Amino acid sequence: MITLTINNEKYQIDASSETPLLWVLRDHLNLKGSKYSCGIAACGACKVLVDGNAVPSCVLPIASVIDAKITTIEGLGTAEELHPVQKAWIKENVPQCGYCQTGQIITAVSIYDKHDNLKKDEVLSIMNSNICRCGTYDRIKKALDGLF
Asked: Which part of the chain is the 2Fe-2S ferredoxin-type domain (predicted)?
């Protein structure tokens, strides 16, 4: 059994230490917000926060996050109080199909929470680690403009 802290709760996980975090989230804990897409950490749809850093969970073995604080999209905000990034996404009606938006939001949250003095081009460069098949980049940029 491996103990993980996810969304401020401790979970006992019965899985191999090499199991990717994404599969533990989706299959063991029924946290479906992080999506499987490329499986090689290239698209960003599976990103979660690990100690405040946006990381792809599809290739991250759970053994590497035993002592970490993991936050998924489900743990960002509540219905009563959304994270400022979530509010910006809603205000600008960012998602189209929505598949990539978990990774987009998680990446933006990691920037918003940790890097308050970045220039806009630096923010956009970090955001480029996520792919949006629908091309909502202009709406993403507009939401980011309201935050940074």
From this structure: 1-76
